[in-house]
Write a structure and sequence with these properties.
The protein is of the alpha+beta class and 283 residues long. The protein has seven helices and 14 strands. The protein has one domain.
Length: 283
């Protein structure tokens, strides 16, 4: 077999394997074994989820995460806020400084000496803000979605069904918002553990992008929250351990928690400049 024939044979084999494994879809098929349900099935599931979420008390969704991606007018700064049972923290990434709120204290990190002050969580995130966004999501579910998709995604083993509703326009706090989307990941039996809400708000000449997830606080965790805390702790000298790969983090939960627990934030505060006017940047 010539080199050219070997090359063509390899292409055929790879293509065949890709089709068999679902990486490449044949005409009329979806990749990775995914299946999109009919519009009627999507509408049926939408009505069921809308009914469930509208009837549940707000206390059911007392855990949440919020991510804000800044616009050009924000110099592309971003924020991530996590309220989970395992980690409750807020992180702001800007240039040239970063902010971290954790365990009752706010830290600012930049090229100069770190700064800190004690701060209540309510100065970062209020219950009213969370309830307002939850009520907004419930109001959306009372409307007809502009676009509705219900898919089976076999690679998402624990929650293989995804319901996504998009709304062309909406009002939030009396102001127009766009790119509004509500997503629910469901188990085989139709149960779900929470839902996601995303939207964009006009800021300057461009938009800020918001993404919020609601779930039960009890038993909740976030590997991303742990990574934020770990990364900044390492930068501040609270640990010499590097942030592991996400897969290692998932497999070695006890070890990762122990490294976080061993970080000496009290010693860090003693080395920092206490600033009574220090505040977490508002978005």
């Amino acid at each position: 077999m010539t080199l050219k024939q070997q090359f063509l044979f390899a292409i055929v084999v790879v293509s065949l394997l890709s089709v068999l494994t679902g990486c490449i879809a044949l005409p009329g098929q979806e990749p990775f074994g995914e299946r999109t349900s009919s519009s009627e099935q999507a509408q049926t599931m939408y009505k069921k989820v809308a009914s469930d979420i509208s009837q549940l008390d707000a206390s059911v969704w007392d855990g949440y995460t919020l991510s804000v991606a800044g616009s050009i007018d924000d110099d592309f700064s971003s924020q991530d806020i996590y309220k989970t049972e395992e980690y409750t923290l807020a992180y702001h990434e800007g240039y040239p400084e970063e902010y971290l709120w954790y365990d009752g204290w706010l830290y600012r990190v930049e090229d100069a000496q770190p700064a800190c002050r004690d701060m209540a969580w309510e100065e970062i995130m209020t219950e009213e803000y969370v309830l307002d966004k939850l009520a907004f999501a419930q109001q959306l579910l009372e409307q007809e979605a502009g676009e509705l998709v219900y898919k089976y995604i076999p690679m998402a083993e624990n929650h293989p069904y995804l319901l996504t509703a998009e709304y062309p326009e909406a009002q939030m706090d009396g102001k127009p918002v766009c790119s509004v989307k509500l997503s629910v990941r469901l188990k085989e039996d139709g149960a779900y553990d929470g839902f996601d809400l995303s939207w964009q708000e006009k800021h300057g000449k461009t938009n800020r992008a918001y993404a919020m997830s609601f779930f039960a606080y009890d038993g909740s965790s976030s590997l991303q929250a742990e990574r934020k805390l770990w990364s900044l702790g390492q930068k501040l000298g609270a640990t010499a351990e590097s942030v592991p790969a996400l897969s290692d983090q998932e497999e070695n939960r006890q070890q990762c928690r122990q490294i976080i627990e061993n970080m000496d934030f009290e010693a860090l505060r003693q080395q920092s400049d206490y600033q009574k006017d220090l505040s977490f940047p508002k978005k």
